Amino acid sequence: MIDGLVPDPGDSSFAIRGHAADERRAAARETGLFPPPPGADPRLVPMPISAFDAPVPFAAVRVPRTFVWCTRSDMGAQARRAAARGWRVVEVEAGHWLPLEAPELCAALLLDPRALADRP
């Protein structure tokens, strides 16, 4: 997982990050779409607000998991959730948009989260 949400079965984004709900709902009130931040990379597109509201149904499975926390993001609480659930947490000095900021590093981490240890 790259700097994302760590839900439990049935959670929604807003259930996990309630502090973001009012702001995002207000921003999406007219169109139903939550816009990218001002000045964001033009490849980012608005997201349907329903993506944040909808619960995520899934059955938990026992597999090794790694959470890559981009330490310049506000996802520290998600890194702590991951650690509390037994996930390995790897920290990288980057913002939330790692795939856009450092695509090579992002790809290396997806292929092998230990790749960070091999960086100078």
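The above is record 1. Record 2 follows with the same two-line structure.
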Amino acid sequence: MEERLTRLHSVCLAVLCLSHCSTMKAHVRRGQNYAIGFSIITMAETDQLVIKIVSYNLHGLNNGRSGLSELCNDPNVDIICVQEHWLTPNNLHLLNEVHPEFTGFGISSMSDRLASGVYYGRLYGGIGFLWRKKLSGIYIGYKACSGRILSMMLRLSDGKRLNIVSVYFPCFANSCEYKAELSECLSDIEEVLSDNAEVIIVGDTNFECDLCNVGYLQCYRLLNSYNISHCDGFVTTNNPITYRNDALGHCSFIDHMFVSDSIRKNIVSGLIYDSGTNLSDHLPLILI
């Protein structure tokens, strides 16, 4: 989508049922461009751990705050991956002030631009995580040069590891610059995938999952080599759309979830959801 378009919140919610895991604990890893962290959760006297993960394009924290609050008020939501918070580095602390039960961490896409001189124009980009304070101890990594990829790794009590990756891909353009910028994002994702852990990738990809789309084809080639595929098929709505701009007459399905084939069986269904707090041209996508 063009950057000038009004972007409103897009939400992708995953519910994974991880059997016989009463404890989820953490592992820290650091690399040249990213660090992956973890937390410990104790679920007393339960045979099944249910993790709800939400991906949400905010179109700026101020615009998305009401939607974030609604998500945080859902007691079943554990982790929220956010894109386009539009925060400068000195304002990233505001992610900690969204809800009293959540801690926030984010990175800015504007760090290098602001360091190069006075900036004029609209704020843009940025990515982050919000997680319940009961998950204290999470360490999150970042890709500072782009601000488009952020990952978290959870180590479960049965020894399995789960990587959660929040993405905000560049807006599609038929240009070499677009392909190069997307390649950089995919390179960051491949560093996470090199851990050989199960993975959930969620966010605003700015393309439809169609092999005729240059952006998706580039992404598909990487993810398919790691046995990761999209979950669009779980959405049974006829002609599903997650982006809609009535003024411009635009609509498309550009918010997606990709998961390791080994955990697809844990997804029950999918739907496109809207609520009274959704003032946007993006509609929430929920996978259960």
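Residues 1-10, 17-48 have pLDDT under 50 and may be disordered.
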